[in-house]
Amino acid sequence: MIGSGLTKPEPTSKRARPRGRRSERSNGIAHALNLGVARPMFPPMLPTSTSRPRRGRLRRWWPALAATAVLVPALSLSALRQQAARSAPLPILGRVTDFALVDQSNAPVARTAFDGEPWIASFVFTRCPLVCPRLSDHMRALQALAQRGDAKIHLVTFSIDPEHDTPAVLGAYADGYGADRRRWSFLTGSEGSIQQVVRSFSVALEGTADPTKPDFGIMHSGHLVLVDGQARIRGYYPSAENGVESRILADLERIGTS
Predict the structure, then answer these.
(1) Which of 220, 196, 238, 222 is nearest to 96 (CA)?
(2) Which pTM does this prediction carry?
(3) CATH number of 94-255: 1.10.150.130, 3.40.30.10, 3.40.50.2000, 2.40.100.10?
(4) By C-alpha distance, which of 222, 225, 195, 226 is closest to 128?
(5) pLDDT score at 1
Protein backbone atom coordinates (compact mmCIF):
# COMPACT_ATOMS: atom_id res chain seq x y z
CA MET A 1 0.00 0.00 0.00
CA ILE A 2 1.28 3.51 -0.98
CA GLY A 3 2.43 5.68 1.80
CA SER A 4 1.99 3.03 4.38
CA GLY A 5 5.73 3.06 5.16
CA LEU A 6 6.13 -0.57 4.33
CA THR A 7 8.58 -1.70 1.70
CA LYS A 8 7.74 -4.38 -0.75
CA PRO A 9 9.82 -7.47 -0.21
CA GLU A 10 12.16 -8.16 -3.06
CA PRO A 11 11.75 -11.48 -4.80
CA THR A 12 13.93 -14.13 -3.40
CA SER A 13 16.67 -15.47 -5.69
CA LYS A 14 17.04 -19.16 -6.35
CA ARG A 15 19.27 -20.80 -3.83
CA ALA A 16 22.64 -21.71 -5.33
CA ARG A 17 23.01 -25.43 -5.65
CA PRO A 18 26.18 -26.95 -4.42
CA ARG A 19 28.49 -28.19 -7.14
CA GLY A 20 28.45 -31.90 -6.73
CA ARG A 21 29.64 -34.91 -8.62
CA ARG A 22 27.23 -34.39 -11.48
CA SER A 23 28.53 -30.91 -12.06
CA GLU A 24 32.14 -32.03 -11.94
CA ARG A 25 31.36 -34.84 -14.32
CA SER A 26 29.74 -32.41 -16.76
CA ASN A 27 32.68 -30.07 -16.56
CA GLY A 28 35.03 -32.94 -17.20
CA ILE A 29 33.11 -33.97 -20.29
CA ALA A 30 33.02 -30.40 -21.55
CA HIS A 31 36.72 -30.02 -20.99
CA ALA A 32 37.43 -33.20 -22.82
CA LEU A 33 35.26 -32.16 -25.72
CA ASN A 34 36.96 -28.79 -25.87
CA LEU A 35 40.31 -30.58 -26.18
CA GLY A 36 38.98 -32.81 -28.91
CA VAL A 37 39.72 -35.92 -26.85
CA ALA A 38 37.05 -38.20 -25.59
CA ARG A 39 37.90 -39.89 -22.39
CA PRO A 40 35.79 -42.29 -20.42
CA MET A 41 33.95 -40.94 -17.46
CA PHE A 42 34.91 -43.94 -15.43
CA PRO A 43 38.11 -45.93 -15.38
CA PRO A 44 37.94 -49.15 -17.45
CA MET A 45 37.16 -52.32 -15.61
CA LEU A 46 40.11 -54.67 -15.79
CA PRO A 47 39.45 -58.42 -15.69
CA THR A 48 40.43 -59.89 -12.42
CA SER A 49 42.57 -63.04 -12.47
CA THR A 50 41.43 -66.14 -10.72
CA SER A 51 43.39 -69.07 -9.44
CA ARG A 52 41.69 -71.60 -11.70
CA PRO A 53 44.05 -71.24 -14.71
CA ARG A 54 47.08 -71.66 -12.46
CA ARG A 55 45.62 -74.80 -10.98
CA GLY A 56 44.96 -76.04 -14.50
CA ARG A 57 48.53 -75.43 -15.59
CA LEU A 58 49.81 -77.11 -12.46
CA ARG A 59 47.66 -80.14 -13.16
CA ARG A 60 49.08 -80.34 -16.70
CA TRP A 61 52.67 -80.16 -15.49
CA TRP A 62 52.25 -82.43 -12.49
CA PRO A 63 53.07 -85.74 -14.29
CA ALA A 64 56.32 -84.28 -15.65
CA LEU A 65 57.26 -82.85 -12.25
CA ALA A 66 56.51 -86.16 -10.56
CA ALA A 67 58.55 -88.08 -13.14
CA THR A 68 61.50 -85.70 -12.66
CA ALA A 69 61.30 -86.09 -8.91
CA VAL A 70 61.59 -89.85 -9.32
CA LEU A 71 64.09 -89.93 -12.20
CA VAL A 72 66.74 -87.56 -10.82
CA PRO A 73 67.34 -89.52 -7.58
CA ALA A 74 67.34 -92.78 -9.55
CA LEU A 75 70.00 -91.49 -11.95
CA SER A 76 72.07 -90.17 -9.07
CA LEU A 77 71.86 -93.54 -7.34
CA SER A 78 72.83 -95.34 -10.54
CA ALA A 79 75.84 -93.04 -10.99
CA LEU A 80 76.93 -93.66 -7.41
CA ARG A 81 76.65 -97.41 -7.90
CA GLN A 82 78.70 -97.27 -11.09
CA GLN A 83 81.36 -95.17 -9.39
CA ALA A 84 81.45 -97.58 -6.46
CA ALA A 85 81.75 -100.52 -8.86
CA ARG A 86 84.64 -98.86 -10.70
CA SER A 87 86.47 -98.13 -7.46
CA ALA A 88 85.87 -101.58 -5.93
CA PRO A 89 88.72 -104.09 -6.27
CA LEU A 90 88.36 -106.72 -8.96
CA PRO A 91 87.50 -110.19 -7.67
CA ILE A 92 90.04 -113.01 -7.71
CA LEU A 93 88.52 -115.71 -9.90
CA GLY A 94 91.29 -118.29 -9.97
CA ARG A 95 94.98 -118.83 -10.46
CA VAL A 96 96.99 -119.78 -13.56
CA THR A 97 99.06 -122.90 -13.17
CA ASP A 98 102.79 -122.96 -13.79
CA PHE A 99 103.75 -123.92 -17.33
CA ALA A 100 106.77 -124.31 -19.56
CA LEU A 101 105.98 -123.75 -23.23
CA VAL A 102 107.64 -122.25 -26.31
CA ASP A 103 106.73 -119.11 -28.23
CA GLN A 104 106.56 -118.28 -31.96
CA SER A 105 110.33 -117.85 -31.99
CA ASN A 106 110.74 -121.33 -30.44
CA ALA A 107 112.08 -119.69 -27.28
CA PRO A 108 111.14 -121.28 -23.95
CA VAL A 109 108.60 -119.34 -21.91
CA ALA A 110 107.58 -120.08 -18.33
CA ARG A 111 104.60 -118.63 -16.51
CA THR A 112 106.95 -116.81 -14.17
CA ALA A 113 108.11 -114.70 -17.14
CA PHE A 114 104.92 -112.67 -16.68
CA ASP A 115 105.13 -112.20 -12.93
CA GLY A 116 104.85 -108.60 -11.77
CA GLU A 117 102.98 -107.47 -14.90
CA PRO A 118 99.31 -107.89 -15.86
CA TRP A 119 98.56 -109.82 -19.02
CA ILE A 120 95.69 -110.78 -21.28
CA ALA A 121 95.21 -114.38 -22.38
CA SER A 122 93.34 -115.83 -25.34
CA PHE A 123 92.94 -119.37 -26.70
CA VAL A 124 92.97 -119.93 -30.47
CA PHE A 125 94.16 -122.27 -33.18
CA THR A 126 95.40 -121.06 -36.51
CA ARG A 127 92.90 -123.06 -38.61
CA CYS A 128 89.91 -121.74 -36.66
CA PRO A 129 87.40 -120.12 -39.05
CA LEU A 130 85.07 -118.23 -36.68
CA VAL A 131 85.84 -117.28 -33.08
CA CYS A 132 89.61 -117.17 -33.29
CA PRO A 133 89.90 -114.33 -35.85
CA ARG A 134 87.63 -112.21 -33.65
CA LEU A 135 89.74 -112.99 -30.57
CA SER A 136 92.94 -112.12 -32.41
CA ASP A 137 91.40 -108.88 -33.70
CA HIS A 138 90.68 -107.86 -30.11
CA MET A 139 94.23 -108.73 -29.08
CA ARG A 140 95.61 -106.65 -31.96
CA ALA A 141 93.42 -103.71 -30.89
CA LEU A 142 94.66 -104.06 -27.30
CA GLN A 143 98.25 -104.07 -28.54
CA ALA A 144 97.65 -100.83 -30.45
CA LEU A 145 95.98 -99.16 -27.46
CA ALA A 146 98.77 -100.30 -25.14
CA GLN A 147 101.44 -98.97 -27.49
CA ARG A 148 99.65 -95.65 -27.83
CA GLY A 149 99.26 -95.22 -24.09
CA ASP A 150 102.54 -96.90 -23.13
CA ALA A 151 100.60 -99.30 -20.91
CA LYS A 152 102.48 -102.06 -19.13
CA ILE A 153 100.67 -105.12 -20.36
CA HIS A 154 101.58 -108.34 -22.14
CA LEU A 155 99.40 -110.36 -24.50
CA VAL A 156 99.56 -114.15 -24.46
CA THR A 157 97.82 -116.37 -27.00
CA PHE A 158 97.76 -120.10 -26.32
CA SER A 159 97.33 -122.53 -29.21
CA ILE A 160 94.80 -125.25 -28.45
CA ASP A 161 95.89 -127.22 -31.53
CA PRO A 162 99.53 -127.77 -30.61
CA GLU A 163 100.04 -130.70 -32.98
CA HIS A 164 99.46 -128.44 -35.97
CA ASP A 165 100.48 -125.07 -34.52
CA THR A 166 104.24 -125.35 -34.39
CA PRO A 167 106.37 -122.30 -33.57
CA ALA A 168 106.84 -121.65 -37.29
CA VAL A 169 103.08 -121.80 -37.96
CA LEU A 170 102.40 -119.56 -34.99
CA GLY A 171 105.08 -117.14 -36.18
CA ALA A 172 103.38 -116.72 -39.54
CA TYR A 173 100.01 -116.31 -37.85
CA ALA A 174 101.44 -113.70 -35.46
CA ASP A 175 102.99 -111.73 -38.31
CA GLY A 176 99.61 -111.68 -40.04
CA TYR A 177 98.19 -109.78 -37.05
CA GLY A 178 101.17 -107.47 -36.73
CA ALA A 179 102.20 -108.91 -33.39
CA ASP A 180 105.02 -107.12 -31.58
CA ARG A 181 107.06 -110.03 -30.25
CA ARG A 182 108.18 -107.99 -27.26
CA ARG A 183 104.56 -107.49 -26.23
CA TRP A 184 102.54 -110.38 -27.70
CA SER A 185 103.55 -114.02 -27.22
CA PHE A 186 102.04 -117.02 -29.05
CA LEU A 187 102.64 -120.18 -27.04
CA THR A 188 102.45 -123.86 -27.87
CA GLY A 189 103.66 -127.10 -26.34
CA SER A 190 102.57 -130.65 -25.73
CA GLU A 191 98.90 -131.62 -25.74
CA GLY A 192 99.03 -132.44 -22.03
CA SER A 193 100.67 -129.13 -21.02
CA ILE A 194 98.11 -127.11 -23.02
CA GLN A 195 95.24 -129.04 -21.44
CA GLN A 196 96.64 -128.29 -17.99
CA VAL A 197 96.82 -124.57 -18.72
CA VAL A 198 93.25 -124.57 -20.08
CA ARG A 199 91.90 -126.26 -16.94
CA SER A 200 93.59 -123.71 -14.68
CA PHE A 201 91.84 -120.92 -16.63
CA SER A 202 88.47 -122.69 -16.25
CA VAL A 203 87.60 -122.08 -19.90
CA ALA A 204 85.78 -124.42 -22.23
CA LEU A 205 87.65 -126.74 -24.58
CA GLU A 206 86.23 -129.83 -26.25
CA GLY A 207 87.35 -132.05 -29.10
CA THR A 208 90.49 -132.42 -31.13
CA ALA A 209 91.39 -131.04 -34.52
CA ASP A 210 89.62 -132.81 -37.38
CA PRO A 211 89.44 -131.05 -40.77
CA THR A 212 86.43 -133.15 -41.76
CA LYS A 213 84.25 -131.73 -38.96
CA PRO A 214 82.65 -128.30 -38.58
CA ASP A 215 84.94 -125.81 -36.84
CA PHE A 216 87.71 -128.40 -37.27
CA GLY A 217 86.16 -130.43 -34.45
CA ILE A 218 87.28 -128.04 -31.69
CA MET A 219 84.84 -126.15 -29.49
CA HIS A 220 86.50 -123.63 -27.20
CA SER A 221 86.00 -120.47 -25.18
CA GLY A 222 85.63 -117.14 -26.93
CA HIS A 223 86.68 -115.09 -23.89
CA LEU A 224 89.66 -112.88 -23.23
CA VAL A 225 91.04 -113.33 -19.73
CA LEU A 226 92.70 -110.71 -17.53
CA VAL A 227 95.53 -111.98 -15.29
CA ASP A 228 97.34 -109.84 -12.75
CA GLY A 229 101.06 -109.83 -11.93
CA GLN A 230 100.59 -112.63 -9.39
CA ALA A 231 99.04 -115.05 -11.90
CA ARG A 232 95.56 -114.45 -10.45
CA ILE A 233 92.61 -114.37 -12.84
CA ARG A 234 90.72 -111.08 -12.43
CA GLY A 235 88.22 -110.97 -15.29
CA TYR A 236 86.62 -112.72 -18.27
CA TYR A 237 85.54 -110.69 -21.31
CA PRO A 238 83.43 -112.07 -24.19
CA SER A 239 84.89 -111.48 -27.63
CA ALA A 240 81.37 -110.78 -28.96
CA GLU A 241 81.21 -107.56 -26.89
CA ASN A 242 81.79 -104.45 -28.97
CA GLY A 243 84.43 -102.16 -27.53
CA VAL A 244 85.50 -104.74 -24.98
CA GLU A 245 89.04 -103.33 -25.12
CA SER A 246 87.97 -100.19 -23.27
CA ARG A 247 86.55 -102.22 -20.41
CA ILE A 248 89.69 -104.33 -20.18
CA LEU A 249 91.94 -101.26 -20.06
CA ALA A 250 89.73 -99.71 -17.36
CA ASP A 251 90.06 -102.87 -15.28
CA LEU A 252 93.81 -102.87 -15.86
CA GLU A 253 94.01 -99.49 -14.14
CA ARG A 254 92.12 -100.92 -11.18
CA ILE A 255 94.63 -103.71 -10.59
CA GLY A 256 97.76 -101.71 -11.53
CA THR A 257 100.83 -103.92 -11.50
CA SER A 258 99.65 -106.14 -8.64
Answers:
(1) 196
(2) 0.67
(3) 3.40.30.10
(4) 222
(5) 44
